[in-house]
Amino acid sequence: MHSPEGSEEMSHTDDGDDEGSTDCEEDSIPVEKNNGQENGIGNQPIPSKKLSWNIKANDRLYNNSFKRTKYCCLKEKLYKIFPQVSPLKWYTTFITLAAVMTFTAIKDARDDIMRHICDRSINNRKCGLMVNGSFQEKKWMNIKVGDIVRLKRDDFIPADLLLLSSSEPNSLCYLETAELDGETNLKYKQALKITHEQLHEEAQLADFNGIIHCEIPNNRLDKFEGTLEWREGDVHSVGNDNILLRGCRLRNTQFCHGMVVYAGPDTKMMKNSGKKHLKQTQIDRQMNVLVCLIFVILFVFCFAMAIGTTIWEIVHGKGFDTYCKRDDTSSFVKSEEGMAAWTAFLTFFSYIILLNTLVPISLYVSMEIIRSLQSFFIGCDKRMYYPLKNVPANARTTTLNEELGQIEYVFSDKTGTLTQNIMTFKKCTIGSVVYGKRENESERFTSSQADKMVSWDWNDKADPKFQFCDQRLVDLMVKEHDAEACEFFRLLALCHTVMVEETEGKLIYQAQSPDEESLVTAARNFGFVFLARSQDTVLISELGTQKEYMLYHILDFNSDRKRMSIIVRNPEGKLKLYCKGADTVILERLQKDNPYREQTQEDLDMFANESLRTLCLATRDLSEEEYQNWYSKHFLPASTAIGERERRLSKAYELIEKEMVLLGATAIEDKLQNGVPETIAKLAEAKIKIWVLTGDKQETAENISFSCNLLRNDMEILKNEDVSKMIQESIRRKDPPSNPKQLLNRSHKALIVTGNTLSTILTDKNSRIKLRRRKNKKRNGGTASEAVVNGVEDQQAKQQSDQLKERQRRFIELASECATVICCRVSPLQKAEVVKLVKKHKKAITLAIGDGANDVNMINTAHIGVGISGQEGMQAVLASDFSFGQFRFLQRLLLVHGRWSYLRLTNFLCYFFYKNFAFTLVHFWFGFFNGFSAQEIYDEWYITFYNVFYTSLPVLMIGIFDQDVSDVKSIQYPALYEPGPKNLYFNFPIFFGRLMFGFLTSFLIFFIPYGAFTMTTRDDGMSPSDYQSFCVVTSTALTFIVNFQVGLDMAFWTWLNIFSIFSSIAIYFALMFDCNSSGSHNLLTSFFMFTGVVFGQFYFLHTLLYKI
């Protein structure tokens, strides 16, 4: 029985890598039927996070400001522990901190309340549960492993279930998986034959006592390994096609029954709900360094003030005791030197508290507001809306907007990203003859029939939208009944995973990829119509005659195999294997004396030169003895294995997919999306380098690249062998990697490599295998001689590893100096590896864009991932940071929104640091005139409201609305983008420039009023230089200067900018009059002590003269 204790002892992965989550057969869990008993693991209610005032650990604000929050809290504690240290009242920081914490708490509380409501609604959903021999309505939270459940049409799946039976023929079950992978097209699952035949009635289900042995819980949505043991020890293989995953929805199926395999937190959907790695921008990393630097500057200022205090105490300390006798109990502080040291020690911490506004916490709240609104603007941009699919642009994160303005490398998929991914069957080659529309005279036919559009009047099941230009192929099929042509289209009608529905007499195909749908539709129009499938049969119509094929096995397609096969028995009783796949894997598995191989290879090259996608088709006759031997010795053990089932099945498939006969090849057209060449040209003008990473053939990728202006005729193209030779030559000559111009003698070069070449350059499997073996031997122990051998081998492995790193560095240096880089025939892992190497060696900001599940690794690896909502589902969109409907929108995302976001945020940061330096450093100058006593120069309410009311609006307007040029000009002149990747608007020189500007401003703000007060007398001959009047004049001057300075820094004036500046000044005067009024003083005397200062005549006079 699947017990809680057992699950705690077993580990499971959370990264979903390609190796799976199980490595041996022992990592399995037996699951028995639960007869309504209250035990086992169940759908426990999903726990909501408690409402808290604390900032969440996974929240962006928390990650950036937690250390600063602790600093503020430490300061509050200093108030209570050492009251003689603090020069300020408690509310000067408390109000600002409370506002920030309240804002965050409200946001987090709202999120938690909504999450709790959603969780409660999910936990209280109901479904049919087998209890005491009958189905009863029970809540999801009561479901446990081993339960039998009944689901109805449109129900959500409550747990990971083994499908036992359904209302559909052959116990098929149609699912919508939008909540798992975002795809809306239906997928089908199928019950095991034995459960389909014997588990339909309620009594049968109540008596079911099967045991499932399966892998431990993991997050692999596309993988399940298990076996069903039932009735006299019979073992049946259970795979992903038999499992209904939680989060899916039952469609087009009246009801189904299932047995719970994983429930609650063990379901695959819950295993995939872990934390996503938080991406950090370059500006965030700079900010972390600058914050540390500011603290160093703060300590330097405080140390200088402490030294000043020591000197002042030695010179004037005794005279000060006349006015204020100090109560000293320590013998140390009774001495003159001891008193000076003690006072300096206290002053140091007092100035730390007084000058802490150099880095206020409000900075991070303002950044969150600005980034959120920038993301909102991206989503509201109508020019990035794709009306054909009703897909708007979507910023799925609010933390990476400014990094869109710093992109240096763009890594793009080809199919569905640069192209439309709408496949059209254009040509084919059968028996060394090419059929399809003629593109040039070099093709091997001249008949005028080749250019005629085919009529489908003879086929009542044809798709009228399908078009083909070559009547000869129709004649070959209909009139001549050519055996090779019939076998060609028979393969297309049988070898696929397409689902078919019949609506109002019309066949509707639903495929998981556009390629399959195009090929099955082509077979349909040429007379081989796919009609239906069951667990063990496929029904097709062959030129009007229905034939049923016994389906024995489907040898699945994956990115490593690059092919798909089926084994069937035809109506004549013969066993046949049909296979389709990439030419690189099909041609090497043919018979040696295949007559069409060479000519078909030439046809494939011709198709690739026309930018067509190709597949090879092959078949093989199987003898009964050979099949039974393969099934019993290889396939059956592999299919029932719980550990490494995929690897074992792949090896079994290899043993039967051999000695095949080539039938021909298909050529499918995938056109470029609108605006792709123009977008690539604009990005190139912005000095953004574009690399294409695709799984297509080299010729196809090359021709598409010419079509979209990535490659030009004046470019020198470096290919596989050239690249390897240049890298080896540069290593042999020991050229410095930082001088790649020695590798390239001319500019305007392009580099094209295949996946095999990348494997040779970027990986060294032998060294890794040897090193792993050495570690295993060390772990297990060994003799002294073995230790010596192991040491030598370890040293060799280390040398090979160093050589590998050097090759990688040389390759990236070479590729980065090329105008265009195209990597073809690459796997998803190789795509991610290329991106990782560029990040590592070039230290550049990268962006990856794709539309399919094979692009997810690349999207997650890059600094910024962009998903295109296309024909291959929503996996790329769900994994991305930004998404939209067409590749052409990338230029607006980068050149407009990215550049504006970078410009706005850097201007915001520069101005924010300036205004706070100007505000805080006035205290520094005042220290030279108050005995370095850490006395504040501003009214404490002014300190409290400075960053909250007096200067917050204008700086937000810069970060939200400022722009130097319009969006039209930004696209018209892409060179304006160049400062972003070079980070010219926010770096250490600019920071120190703003520091010095704030330093100078604080100097003028203090000394000009100081000089004016010193040289002025009132009507009665007395000096007006009282402390309170001086403080108010200084604060008024500061408010005017920093608000007018933001007006000078703005490049784009709107009524909102003007309103923010003058409203901030108006708020200052309103609060200042209120805080300094007699009413406030009489109400709270200890809080409002600057009574009547604002109304004094010298305040207005000095302010006016100072402004003039």
UniProtKB/TrEMBL annotation:
| Primary subcellular site in the record, as a coarse category | membrane
Catalysed transformations (reactions): ATP + H2O + phospholipidSide 1 = ADP + phosphate + phospholipidSide 2
> Which residues are ATP-binding?
413-415, 516, 557, 580, 613, 694-696, 825, 831, 854-855
Q: Cellular component per GO?
A: plasma membrane; trans-Golgi network
P-type ATPase C-terminal domain spans which residues? 877-1105
Which superkingdom heads the taxonomic lineage of this protein's source? Answer: Eukaryota
Protein residues bound to Mg(2+): 413, 415, 851, 855
Instruction: Give the EC number(s) listed in the UniProt record.
Output: 7.6.2.1
User: Can you tell me which residues form the catalytic site?
Assistant: 413 (4-aspartylphosphate intermediate)
Q: How does it sit in the membrane?
A: Multi-pass membrane protein
Q: Where in the cell is it found?
A: Membrane
SUPFAM superfamilies recorded: Calcium ATPase, transduction domain A, Calcium ATPase, transmembrane domain M, HAD-like, Metal cation-transporting ATPase, ATP-binding domain N
Compositional bias ranges of the Polar residues kind: 34-46
Entry coiled-coil feature ranges: none
Keyword Secreted on entry = no
State the UniProt keywords alphabetically: ATP-binding, Magnesium, Membrane, Metal-binding, Nucleotide-binding, Phosphoprotein, Translocase, Transmembrane, Transmembrane helix
> Which prosthetic group or cofactor does it need?
Mg(2+)
In the record, biological process GO terms are: Golgi organization; phospholipid translocation
Matching PANTHER family: PHOSPHOLIPID-TRANSPORTING ATPASE IC (PTHR24092:SF48), PROBABLE PHOSPHOLIPID-TRANSPORTING ATPASE (PTHR24092)
The record ties this protein, via NCBIfam families, to: ATPase-Plipid, ATPase_P-type
What protein family is recorded? Belongs to the cation transport ATPase (P-type) (TC 3.A.3) family. Type IV subfamily.
Protein name per the record? Phospholipid-transporting ATPase
What is the protein's species of origin?
Eptatretus burgeri (Inshore hagfish)
Organism taxonomic ancestry = Eukaryota, Metazoa, Chordata, Craniata, Vertebrata
